[in-house]
Amino acid sequence: MFQMAYNGNMPKQDLNLTRRSEVRGKQTEKWIFGKKFPNDYLKDSDFSDLERQLLFNRGIKDAKEAEDFLDPKYDRLHDPFLMKGMEETVKRIQTALENKEKVVIYGDYDVDGITATAILHDTFSALDISASYYIPKRDTEGYGLNKDALKEIAENGANLVVTVDCGITGVEEVKYAKELGLDIIITDHHNVPVKSGKQIIPETIVINPKQNSCKYPYGELSGSGIAFKLAQALYATFPEKLIFGQEKWLLDLAALGTVCDMVPLTGENRIISHFGLKVLAKTKRVGLKLLAEASGVSLREMKSYNLGFQLGPRLNAAGRLETAEKSIQLLLSSDENEARMLALDLDNLNKERQDLTQRILSEAIEEIEKKDKDSKIFLLANENWPAGVVGIIASKLVDKYARPVIVFEDKGDRCQGSARSPKCFNIIEALEKNSEILVRCGGHARAAGATVKKEHFVLLEEKLIEIAGNKITEEDLQPELEVEAEVNLSDVDEENYNFLQRLEPYGMGNPSPRFVAWGLKVESFRKVGKEGEHLKLALADGSEKRNAIFFSYFDREIDLQKPVDALFSINQNEWGGKVSYEMRCLSMKNT
After folding, report:
1. DSSP state letter for 553
2. Predicted local confidence at residue 24, as pLDDT
């Protein structure tokens, strides 16, 4: 029982939990409910009404789709040779094998690019192909193919470059590579640039399911997912060198890249991440074992959250603050001493990155508060904000201000930045409309990168403010929280918790479920945390009572003498050998 039950004598300030909102302007949070499932939906199944609602929310149409979703099967992955360019790629790699050519894997410095690089490096090594890798430096080279790197690769005697997680925008770079005598294979998952309604694709072998001419059944793979599909194709083609089925051991890397790149965890991505977590639990990679140890998590209990918020940030830290070399070495290392040192280095770099992020975030908020309050998009630049962390800052600012944000490092003659956007605005489309004043850009609807000459920064800002102003409404700027279903406290139980585990792994396209319970009585509560910033409660609706935790409650106005509506997730709690089920409150309002 909680220690601090209300007895009528508690000071008023302890009951009205208020703090000046840091969100700019008057923004009322909206709880968004989807449609209720039709009466005949899965009516002959054994699913409860709550389970039917959860499946309906995920677009599950019938019992067969429900079975596929709840019980993923590896053999439901599509034939990799259905992907345009796959057959040509395998043939070119076979030529490289036969002619003992030098192959370079050209990757990217984020988790998706690093894991994709490691997937192909392991596969090429098993094929006895002489393969090395090249990861550009974020600070000096930026994202994607660049001519200086290609020149260096050619001078070192390479014959073939295979890109992963990049290259689809490298039309001029591919032409230059050919002049150097290099063959290029592009494997990428990013949007294909469009000009005058036509996709602009480099003139070389390209694997990217977002090509209009590609008929592959699933178009949302990550860079590491596409690298895994190429590995699948190679394992099927070279049975004398590769044992078919052993490519499954690459799924730990594919899952890590897929979850961290925030692609939808649906279709093949769900299968990859589901089985990748199983492979990760018994991974052969000493580096991942030691990285998990440094992160304080168990590989056997790993979920998508741990990949996205514990392992992923540590692997990203090297590329953000230095180069990605330590991260790729960790994934490829077979030496325990080396891997332990690398894991500890990455853990320390991540702590340094966290401190840097907090400092820059405070500075960025201060800059935003000086800007036009009616602006529907914010562009920020500072010479002391490293390009390696501006994407994190942009994401946090989008969460705070509910509008698109682009944060740049001012490099003197140019500004290199990362853009993030809520779902109401397609940021890459807006950037591409201004491609004539950009040095480069690329990415997705909600996350993109862009480089602009310093002299064009103000012009870019003006154009994007105009586009966003015409597209984004005041209603779009209201923070939204999507709700899965209305429930009673009796629904916070073992049966529903176990079903929620079957919906894992959670991520884009399959969010962790949130529920709402109305008109709850606060029977008791107490503040916890170093500064009393969290709240533990006992909530009741009639005869049912459940414990709850509400983190960072202090930016709400809540009178705990009155009934409350709670938005929450369902958690399992183990204490003293006893298992119970409780609420993790994500939002709360007076009824």
Report:
1. G
2. 36
